[in-house]
Design goal:
- The chain is an alpha+beta fold.
- The protein is 30% helix and 34% strand.
- It has helices at residues 11-19, 21-24, 35-46, 99-113, 129-137, and strands at residues 2-5, 55-60, 67-78, 81-90, 119-124, 141-148, 151-159.
- Strand 6 and strand 7 form a beta hairpin.
- Helix 1 (11-19) crosses helix 3 and helix 4 (99-113) packs across helix 5.
- The protein is globular.
């Protein structure tokens, strides 16, 4: 896989992720977004989000360079505390191939080695067994139950050191 910042030319792929109920099932309230809503998120949140090396990066298939999803390190507020989350979404046709785990491991290493972050979390909705599996492969353990934007989530965390 290859990772790169989104550009304006990638909007249609971003919008396609938001339009797919299977992809957004465990994202926020699990509701798809219209093209207009996706554009607002893309222009106001995603594109400006690369400051300080964080944000969601487009994942391209290594050989074909076809976009398959996005992943990265994003800052979140959870229980009044600033945290750094590893997030990952894949288009449904690419689920179950280990891509989410590969991307999450890449961004865990990136967070530690390039950003100097030594505590990472994943906010996972309770029925999202695939994401629990990815978090476990990252060495994360269930820390607590919480809510994020009114949605019940489990907070998985990892703490380590810079290497």
């Amino acid at each position: 896989m290859k990772f790169r910042p989104y550009t304006t030319e990638d909007f249609s792929f971003f919008a396609s992720l938001w339009a797919d109920p299977d992809v957004v099932q465990f994202i926020g309230k699990g509701v798809t977004r219209s093209e207009e809503e996706a554009r607002k998120s893309f222009e106001e949140w995603l594109l400006p989000g690369y400051r300080e090396g964080r944000g969601l990066f487009l994942i391209e298939h290594r050989d074909s360079l076809v976009p398959i999803g996005h992943a990265g390190v994003v800052q979140q507020m959870i229980d009044g505390k600033k945290e750094y989350e590893i997030g990952y979404w894949l288009a449904k046709e690419f689920l179950g191939n280990g891509y989410a785990t590969e991307a999450a491991i890449h961004f865990k290493n990136y967070a530690v080695q390039k950003l100097g972050i030594t505590r990472l979390i994943c906010l996972i909705q309770r029925n999202n067994k695939r994401s629990v599996s990815v978090a476990s492969r990252l060495g994360m353990t269930l820390q607590k139950e919480s809510t994020f934007n009114t949605i019940p989530v489990d907070v998985y965390s990892w703490e380590g050191s810079q290497k």
